[in-house]
């Protein structure tokens, strides 16, 4: 599964998916311009989490809307909520050779 939300070149942000029911965390691999996993994902709702473990600010690409919500839950950075901001992402499934 590829989550091509815009990755800023040279950004050291780490990305993961967290299953909202089981709280299982799946680390995403950092590609050239996206984050991905080759693991099969069980059905469910997932939260995308980005984390900066460096001592310097890292860039991420976000979109901000005027009074329009892109998701039912707000974007959260630290403890602050941004109800009109979101990551932009798509999910793609690549078939394996075994199928």
Order of neighbouring strands in the sheet with most strands? 1-5-4
Tally of contiguous helical segments? 0
In sequence order, what are the helices and strands, one letter per element? EEEEEEEEEE
Helical fraction: under 10%
Shape: globular
Uncertain segments? none
Strand content: 25-35%
Helix/strand class: mainly beta
Spatial extent as radius of gyration: 14 Å
Average predicted confidence as pLDDT: 78
For the biggest sheet, the summary is: 3 strands, antiparallel
What would you note in describing this structure?
The protein has 99 residues and is mainly beta. The protein has no helices and ten strands. It is 0% helix and 31% strand. The strands form four sheets. A three-stranded antiparallel β-sheet has the order 1-5-4, with no helix packed on it. A hairpin with a 2-residue loop joins strand 8 and strand 9. It starts with a strand and ends in a 13-residue tail after the last strand. The mean pLDDT is 78.
